[in-house]
Design brief:
alpha+beta, 375 residues, single chain, 14 helices, globular
């Protein structure tokens, strides 16, 4: 899918006074002040706009929102985008749906100052924490419902949804996977794909961590995971293809290391597709939501955040098989979609969730060693 390109209004498009008098009013830009005197691009809450109604008005005035790297079948983003657009009448331009987290940052850097730049980010932990200087602090109305461990205190970033790392496989094409080490067997020759490059994509990073745990490593020692993938490549089993629903359904990638909710989504389309979460290597992770500080549509970006963290947005995440970050609070208040949450797997036993410091160290190791192992 190609990125939708927005049309800008040039300063040269000036009209004579008589025509201008009939023209619609100009749309508010990010440099203009809100009702409270704060620039939209610097607003840290809906109150800076004068309240939620004023934020909605400002976002509708901008009329558009640019999102990036949000596949429709990832965490139910197709339904989320439609619901947001339908509710507010704001056009959502979805660019590069299959891009990695680092691609989001690259796009924001390359398109800075342009109307096509991303307004918001949805990032894996390592990429998010390495680029916080690019984010605009903002606290949604439900900010206090979010546990402290899952947000920056100033709202520079906030976790939105999470899941478990898994191995998906087509039982019609390969033997059942019951252990990570099975992937080294000859039956999996040229069949094992990893969702992305672990130096750039959160899913791939967590996939290597899962494998490292299965090989006796730890969140502080990811080296065994890299060594496993070196062996996987040497055996001819590693498939250097970024998996997508299309590659899975066509049989091109019959084994995929990815988040459980993405692998589970494929089962509805391909009944022979099964999902395995290694009990000795359970890795959980949340994605990071943030606003681009140079967002071309700053009010719409902030309204998008409000929608994602509202009960409606969180329940739409749950319907996509992911655990919304406000799930515990919503269970207490009875506002959670219980039917959707009940379908999210519950894992018994120890679960590994890397801290920011552990992620930073592991990311450095991958930067220095992944290409050496894989080529």
């Amino acid at each position: 899918m190609k990125k939708t390109r927005l049309l800008g209004i040039t300063a040269a498009a000036l009209l004579v006074a008589g025509i201008a008098a009939c023209a619609p009013p100009e749309k508010k830009s990010d440099g203009e002040q809100t009702e409270s005197g704060v620039k939209a691009s610097e607003a840290t809450s809906a109150e800076d706009f004068g309240g939620m109604d004023a934020l909605v008005e400002a976002a509708k005035n901008e009329g558009q929102l640019n999102v990036i790297a949000l596949p429709p079948d990832w965490a139910n983003y197709g339904a989320i985008i439609k619901a947001f657009s339908d509710k507010y009448g704001i056009k959502v331009n979805s660019a590069q749906p299959d891009a990695a987290s680092q691609d989001e940052i690259n796009a924001a850097t390359q398109q800075k100052g342009k109307s096509t730049a991303p307004d918001v980010f949805d990032l894996g932990q390592s990429v998010a924490l390495a680029n916080t200087a690019m984010f605009a602090p903002y606290k949604v109305a439900t900010f206090d419902d979010i546990p402290a461990a899952y947000k920056d205190a100033d709202g520079t970033w906030v976790n939105d949804y999470g899941g478990y790392m898994s191995i998906g496989f087509d039982s019609a094409k390969v033997p059942p996977v019951a252990d990570v080490n099975d992937l080294l067997k000859g039956e999996y020759n040229g069949k094992v794909a990893l969702n992305g490059d672990p130096t750039q994509a959160g899913a791939a990073f967590s996939g290597v961590l899962m494998v490292a745990l299965s090989q006796g490593g730890s969140v502080d020692d990811i080296a065994p995971g890299v060594e496993f993938f070196r062996k996987l490549k040497a055996a001819g089993n590693f498939l250097p293809v970024d998996p997508t629903p299309a590659t899975i359904e066509s049989g091109q990638t019959p084994v995929v290391i990815d988040w459980n909710y993405l692998n589970a989504a494929e089962t509805a389309k391909l009944p022979t597709w099964q999902v395995f979460v290694p009990s000795n290597a359970v890795v959980a992770g949340y994605y990071y939501q943030a606003i681009n500080k140079d967002a071309p549509h700053p009010a719409a970006a902030r309204l998008w955040q409000e929608f994602l963290y509202s009960d409606a947005g969180q329940n739409l995440y749950a319907a996509g098989g992911v655990r919304p970050v406000r799930a515990d609070k919503m269970m207490q208040t009875g506002s959670i979609d219980k039917g959707a949450v009940d379908k999210i797997p519950v894992i018994d036993g120890p679960v590994t969730v890397p801290t920011p410091d552990q992620t930073e160290k592991a990311t450095k190791y991958l930067a220095d060693n992944w290409a050496k192992a894989i080529g």
